[in-house]
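Quick question, first post here. What does this chain look like in 3D?
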Amino acid sequence: MTLAYQRIAEALERLSPPRASAPGLTGADGFVWHANGGRLEPVQKISRVPLELLHGINHVRDLLLENTRRFAQGLPANNTLLWGARGMGKSSLVKAVHAAVNAQAPGQLALIEIHREDIDSLPALMGLLRESPRQCLLFCDDLSFDAADTSYKSLKAVLEGGIEGRPDNVLFYATSNRRHLMPREMVDNERSTAINPSEAVEEKVSLSDRFGLWLGFHACSQQEYLDMVAGYVAHFGLPVAEFSWRAEAIEWSATRGARSGRVAWQYIQDLAGRLGRRLG
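> Answer (accepted):
Ran it through. C-alpha cells below.
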C-alpha cells in the first residue's frame, strides 16, 4: 500500500508545473507578468514618450520622479496611486519616469507590468521578486474594482499589513480614473444599506489609503492642451506654421469633446501622417 501511495505522489509531482524560481531580471528593463505559468516576459522596447514632452503635469511629475529616484537608490519610498482624468498622461508618466531614472543609473530599476485581471497573483509575484537583486517597480494600469470583486483584499494585504510585508526591493504604482478605486455608486450603496455606514464604507475605500502618495490628474485648459501640441511639433520638427496647427488642434479637440494629452498626441499622429513624416 505504501508503494502505491508513493507512485501516486510521484505521478502527481510530474504533472504539476515546475516551481517558479527567483528571476534574475536580466537582459531588459521592462517585463510583463504572466500569472498563468508564473513567468516574467522581457520587453525589449517599452512604449513611452520622453519625460520632457509631458506638459501640464509638472507638479505631479516632480513628485513621482523624486519618489522613484529614492526607491531606485534603495531609500524609503511610497506606493503611488495616480488617479484622475482620462488621457492626462498617468501611465505615460510612470513609464517616462522609469526611463529617466534608468538613464541616470542604467539597469538600476526594473519596470514590471501586472494586468488588472492578475491582481490575485500579486502575492506570488511579490514572493519571487523578494529574491531578486534588482529594485522592482510594479505597475498596474487602469486599476479599479467592481461590487462583486474581492481581489482588492489581496492587494491590500500585499501593500501593507501582510505577515511578510512588502519586500524592500519592490514598489507598487497604479493608475486609475477613480480616487478610491471603487465606483462612487458602490460606496454610496454601502453607506445607505449598512447598519454601521462608516465601517462599511471604510472597508471599501481603505484600499486607496494603502498608497502613501496620491497624485491627482485633472482636465487641462486650452492653453495647456496647445502647449502639449507645441511640444510635440517642436520635438519632432514638423514643418508646419503655428497659426495652422493651432487652428487645427483646437478643431480636433472640439470634435472629440475633450482636451488632454492623449487627444494632443492623436492630433500629432494625424498631422505627421498628412505631412508624410515619421514619429520616432
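The mean pLDDT is 83.
The CA atoms of residues 48 and 95 lie 6 Å apart.
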